[in-house]
Amino acid sequence: MSALLAVRGLTAGYGSLIVLRDLDFHVDPGEVVVILGANGAGKTTTLRALSGEISGEGTIEFDGRRVDGSRTDQRARLGIGHVPEGRGTFVDLTVEENLRIGAYHRPAAQVRSAMDRAFGLFPTLGERRAQLAGSMSGGEQQMLAVARALMGDPKLLLLDEPSMGLAPMVTAELFRTLAETNERTGTAMLIVEQNAQIALSIADRAYVLGHGQIVSAGTAAEIRADDSIRRAYLGV
Amino acid sequence: MELLIQRLIDGTSNGFLYGAVALALVLIYRSTGLMNFAQGEMAMFSTFVVWKLADERLGFGLALAIAIPAGIVFAFLLGAVLERAVIRPFSGGNPLTLLIVTLGMFLAINALAGYIFTTDTERLDSPFPSGGLSLGGVTITYLEMGTVVVLLVVALLIRQLFMGTKLGLGLRAAAMNPSSSRLAGIDVGRMMMIGWGLASAIGAIAAILVAPVVYVSTNMMAALLLYGFAAAVVGGFDSPFGALVGGVLVGLIQSLASGYLPFIGTQLQLATAFAVILLVLLIRPQGLFGRLPVERV
């Protein structure tokens, strides 16, 4: 099976500051992959490079084609969904409008069913469809951000610290929903997460990032069992 | 009594023109976070295009029914092209730089209009019949009526576009949160072009409506732009609805002040706009319907 996402020799950063050095990694169709690492290891930068929010060197192949020269919105239309750090909520728009934006590039006929599916996964959002998104709690906004990205029917969902600022109970619920979504729709996921424990619990594989380089890779079970990785990079 | 009603009518009709210019300014401010000083000159240039198409002596002598729509389409394209070619390369940079760029556009378009068309003052016929309705001592000209009706319809169409269509949702999304919009697959650059095009077209409609009164010249928009700024300040720079209300208020203040305050008369009319701007900025800087900028985390 050929990879859904194949990254080779990715070097990227901000201006003259190089954050990522020569990364190689891949995500297979339907897979849940986690990128772990301490603060400042380059996790968010990796996702931003995949979405084209920052440019870099190296090749990014997605769904059989090179996307490293494409703009962010073009990559989104090809099927890369991105739940950004800070959630990217349209705070002055309603929940329903937020979801419609997520499906902006899809034909009108598909939006209705996509919305129903989103409300099925996140019942709270259905109850609050007419509410301004900015008036919801952090947990609800995180659900909305995930639902918004899923509205675009992505083949690959990038999630940047989905547990950030959420209570443990809410985090657990969110990851349950992510696992359920992956199972039902086969959407592949690449998750960047500080909370290694919960992320590894739904992941197939994991990469550990240290100072902009991949220092370890393996199945979720292998990474979880490796004491030296836990001590050095995960702080647990 | 008749005089008061007459002043209210004239003030309202003028106010809709100020409101339209303010609406154009607000649309660009909301999408680009930028005060477009070239708004008036873009409208002036488009009005010259209408004049060139319609004038029988110096132009092509086309009917106004063709020349005016063509001028409005031209204005849309002009706005879109200016955004792409002149504004975009500076976007994301220092807001002050962009402000200077629009001032540069102001000067360049003004000079170009004089070079391409004429530095003389020209006539453009009203799209409405001359004369008007008289009742008692009060007269409403057909131009005043037409101005109010046309601009009301434009405002309602713009509202419907933004609130009731998918394109409108995209335009609002791109203005509110460009980076999140890109991640959702929205071509933010295209939305900016459309936003500038719409603003430019609205400004042109206002200029074409005012042209029969102030005539067509490279400086025809100087006063209207200032009143438009006053209207936008009154209504709040981020509120399209406020722009129209602000326009009518400024129109009424101007008309009543110059009518009842002898020292203002017609000479100091423009100063009332300036006084309104200063007062509002002192008392309520966000305007009647605007919101103070909120730091978002």
Question: How would the blueprint of this fold be written?
Answer:
The complex is a heterodimer of chains A (236) and B (297).
Chain A: E1 5-14, E2 17-27, E3 32-36, H1 43-51, E4 56-62, E5 65-66, H2 72-78, E6 80-83, H3 95-102, H4 108-121, H5 123-127, H6 138-151, E7 156-160, H7 168-185, E8 188-192, H8 196-202, E9 205-210, E10 213-219, H9 220-225, H10 227-234
Parallel strand pairs in A: 3-8, 3-9, 6-7, 7-8
Antiparallel strand pairs in A: 1-2, 1-4, 4-5, 9-10
Helix pairs in contact in A: 3-6, 4-6
Chain B: H1 2-32, H2 39-54, H3 64-87, H4 95-116, E1 132-135, E2 138-141, H5 142-164, H6 166-176, H7 178-183, H8 188-214, H9 222-235, H10 240-260, H11 269-283
Antiparallel strand pairs in B: 1-2
Helix pairs in contact in B: 1-5, 1-8, 1-9, 1-10, 2-3, 2-4, 2-8, 3-8, 5-6, 5-8, 6-8, 9-10, 9-11, 10-11
A few lines on this structure:
With 236 residues, chain A is α/β, with parallel strands linked by helices. Chain A has helices spanning 43-51, 72-78, 95-102, 108-121, 123-127, 138-151, 168-185, 196-202, 220-225, 227-234, and strands at 5-14, 17-27, 32-36, 56-62, 65-66, 80-83, 156-160, 188-192, 205-210, 213-219. Chain A folds into two domains: 1-79 and 155-167 and 174-236, P-loop containing nucleotide triphosphate hydrolases (Rossmann fold, 3-Layer(aba) Sandwich); 88-153, no CATH class.
How is this structure best described in words?
The complex is a heterodimer of chains A (236) and B (297). Chain A is an alpha/beta fold and 236 residues long. Helix content of chain A is 41%, strand content 26%. The N and C termini of chain A lie far apart (35 Å). The model of chain A has no long low-confidence stretch (mean pLDDT 92). With 297 residues, chain B is mostly helical. Chain B has a single domain (2-123, 134-283), classed as ABC transporter involved in vitamin B12 uptake, BtuC (Orthogonal Bundle). Chain B is globular.
What percentage of amino acids of chain A are in beta strands? 25-35%
* Total number of strands of chain A: 10
The domain tally of chain B reads: 1
What is the overall silhouette of chain B? globular
The name of the CATH superfamily of the largest domain in chain A reads P-loop containing nucleotide triphosphate hydrolases
* Assembly classification: heterodimer
